């Protein structure tokens, strides 16, 4: 008679429950026990900010499954309020404490799955433990914040950190009617994105009444007589990456508030991993093989606590997202019951809504591509998501490819509509090794209610391919400034109308409208490196072609046109450069 397999899972949010459910599908005979120290399981953590704002009316909507549901559906024993405090890999046992009774007991396992997730990073600030200071990680946190707002009649909030959770919380509290201040130590919100994309998010926040303080850090939280947070001390002039509370800025101010939400990031929960003696990877999360095995026999790790690897570079990567957690849980649950599923890596694909903007990214940014050793070719493609006559709205796609191979490396997209569709197409293309030239040939769905005849993805591929081949070279705003600041004489030609030029223009540019360019090309020096530009890039490319046809050998088009360049100028000014 075959001995019954016993699987113990520690943690029951996305990855743990996925691993347990898939293991049950792989083995009807296995005994599966899940220990969870919290009271809620399998909840939608990404939906928590929307409970704060009232978009989600009851917290129950975000916690649709309980222990009884898993027992009935899968025959899995989920024990909430039970904390696993130790692991003995030699004996294959775990030590468990029942948090309600205080009782401690030992349980055995054949296979152990660590799905212990992450904990919010809470900087050691004076006053950070005061009433009215919260993190937002689980339903209990969300319930506490919403009750605080309602019971105290809160009108002001400070959010520390401008990543996904911070920005979603800022949006929801603003829509709830609170005055919101966001404090971010980096130069922009969304620090994982390139600055020339993130600045559009900054503009959206400020246009909606959010006070966004960048290059700033919180130094302390002041409290009132009842011990509740009443103000935040903020130091301006922070060095990016130095962290809240490190205290080396230029000026300090006080921001009065009724509550504080700390959203500066998360870190893997590694106590059990260390107890089990498993190897922690370069990223700071548990190192695993493609199936989820750790360095310890019969111990697996999945979800946010586990390391992944970058699909492009192959390097270890850690991007804690619910989509990856579900995937890795399913893979390990399959593998530990005899299956052959393996994880194929991540691109860090993500999307977040910030008021009217969808903000998305996949793969490498320009900065990361350069740091990884690629020679990045970059395009800033500004196009409507569908025709203007059916309400099309402007979208920016910044895409990156490798100059040597043509391989598509990454993309970032920002716009009110259609961003999710394009980022998913680009993520799929990158996953399967597409080159920039391949994007034009994709047979994408078209109807004017959904897209333009040449989709923004097609245009992105065309522009990248032209830049790589040299037929339509591109230069970014930052590169143009670097070249000029370095003393290179670059001839910049504005091919827009006089009306557009009167609004703003690239410094020291020559104005020759496109309609006059053929007749007036002799006014330019064909021996000089030349950059043409328009508002967004299309007319600049037409001017580029005219000059190439007239014998100008070195002609580039300004990527993203004057609109992108002026944003770059504002960014330089804000940074004091």
TrEMBL record:
<dbReference type="Pfam" id="PF02852">
    <property type="entry name" value="Pyr_redox_dim"/>
</dbReference>
<dbReference type="InterPro" id="IPR001763">
    <property type="entry name" value="Rhodanese-like_dom"/>
</dbReference>
<dbReference type="Pfam" id="PF00581">
    <property type="entry name" value="Rhodanese"/>
</dbReference>
<dbReference type="InterPro" id="IPR004099">
    <property type="entry name" value="Pyr_nucl-diS_OxRdtase_dimer"/>
</dbReference>
<dbReference type="Pfam" id="PF07992">
    <property type="entry name" value="Pyr_redox_2"/>
</dbReference>
<dbReference type="InterPro" id="IPR036188">
    <property type="entry name" value="FAD/NAD-bd_sf"/>
</dbReference>
<keyword id="KW-0274">FAD</keyword>
<dbReference type="InterPro" id="IPR016156">
    <property type="entry name" value="FAD/NAD-linked_Rdtase_dimer_sf"/>
</dbReference>
<keyword id="KW-0560">Oxidoreductase</keyword>
<feature type="region of interest" description="Disordered">
    <location>
        <begin position="235"/>
        <end position="254"/>
    </location>
</feature>
<feature type="domain" description="Rhodanese">
    <location>
        <begin position="486"/>
        <end position="574"/>
    </location>
</feature>
<comment type="similarity">
    <text>Belongs to the class-III pyridine nucleotide-disulfide oxidoreductase family.</text>
</comment>
<dbReference type="InterPro" id="IPR036873">
    <property type="entry name" value="Rhodanese-like_dom_sf"/>
</dbReference>
<dbReference type="InterPro" id="IPR023753">
    <property type="entry name" value="FAD/NAD-binding_dom"/>
</dbReference>
<keyword id="KW-0676">Redox-active center</keyword>
<keyword id="KW-0285">Flavoprotein</keyword>
<protein>
    <submittedName>
        <fullName>FAD-dependent oxidoreductase</fullName>
    </submittedName>
</protein>
<dbReference type="InterPro" id="IPR050260">
    <property type="entry name" value="FAD-bd_OxRdtase"/>
</dbReference>
């Amino acid at each position: 008679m075959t001995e019954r397999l016993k699987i113990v899972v520690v943690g029951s949010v996305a990855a743990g429950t996925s691993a347990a459910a898939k293991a049950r599908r792989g083995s009807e005979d296995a005994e599966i026990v899940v220990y969870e120290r919290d009271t809620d399981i399998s909840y939608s953590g990404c939906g928590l900010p929307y409970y704060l704002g009232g978009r989600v009316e009851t917290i129950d909507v975000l916690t649709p499954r309980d222990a009884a549901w898993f027992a009935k559906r899968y025959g899995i024993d989920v024990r909430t309020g039970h904390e696993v405090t130790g692991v003995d890999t030699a004996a294959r046992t775990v030590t468990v404490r029942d948090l309600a009774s205080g009782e401690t007991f030992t349980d055995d396992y054949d296979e152990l799955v660590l799905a212990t997730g992450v904990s919010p990073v809470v900087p050691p600030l004076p006053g950070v433990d005061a009433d009215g200071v919260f993190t937002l990680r689980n339903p209990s946190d969300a319930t506490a914040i919403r009750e605080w707002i309602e019971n105290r009649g809160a009108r002001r909030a400070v959010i520390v950190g401008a990543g996904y959770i911070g920005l979603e919380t800022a949006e929801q509290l603003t829509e709830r009617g609170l005055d919101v201040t966001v404090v971010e130590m980096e130069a922009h919100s969304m620090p994982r994105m390139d600055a020339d994309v993130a600045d559009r998010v900054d503009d959206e926040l400020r246009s909606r009444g959010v006070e966004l303080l960048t290059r700033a850090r919180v130094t302390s939280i002041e409290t009132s007589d009842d011990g509740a947070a009443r103000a935040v001390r903020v130091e301006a002039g922070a060095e990016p990456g130095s962290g809240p509370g490190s205290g080396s800025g230029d000026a300090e101010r006080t921001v009065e508030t009724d509550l504080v939400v700390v959203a500066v990031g998360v870190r893997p929960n590694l106590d059990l991993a260390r107890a089990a003696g498993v190897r922690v990877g370069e990223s700071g999360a548990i190192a695993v093989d493609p199936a989820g095995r750790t360095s310890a026999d019969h111990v697996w790790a999945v979800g946010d606590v586990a390391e992944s690897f970058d699909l492009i570079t192959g390097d270890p990567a850690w991007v804690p997202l619910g989509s990856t957690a579900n995937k890795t849980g399913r893979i390990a649950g399959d593998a530990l019951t005899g299956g052959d599923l393996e994880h194929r890596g991540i691109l860090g694909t993500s999307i977040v809504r910030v008021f009217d903007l969808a903000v998305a990214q996949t793969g490498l940014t320009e900065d990361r591509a350069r740091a990884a050793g690629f020679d990045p070719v970059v395009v800033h493609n500004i196009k409507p998501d569908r025709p203007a006559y059916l309400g099309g709205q402007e979208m920016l796609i910044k895409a990156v490819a490798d100059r040597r191979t043509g391989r598509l490396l990454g993309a970032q997209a920002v716009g009110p509509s259609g961003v999710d569709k394009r980022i998913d197409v680009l993520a799929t293309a990158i996953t399967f090794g597409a080159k920039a030239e391949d994007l034009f040939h994709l047979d994408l769905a078209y109807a004017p209610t959904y897209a333009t005849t040449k989709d923004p993805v097609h245009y992105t591929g065309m522009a990248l391919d032209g830049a790589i081949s040299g037929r339509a070279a591109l230069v970014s705003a930052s590169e143009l400034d670097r070249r000029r600041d370095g003393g290179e004489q670059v001839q910049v030609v504005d091919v827009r109308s006089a009306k557009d030029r009167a609004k703003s223009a690239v410094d020291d540019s020559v104005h020759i409208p496109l309609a006059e360019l053929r007749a007036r090309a002799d006014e330019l020096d064909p021996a000089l490196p030349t950059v043409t530009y328009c508002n967004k890039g299309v007319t600049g490319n037409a001017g580029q072609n005219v000059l190439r046809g007239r014998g100008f050998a070195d002609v580039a088009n300004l990527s993203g046109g004057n609109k992108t360049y002026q944003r770059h100028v504002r960014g330089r000014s804000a940074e004091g450069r």
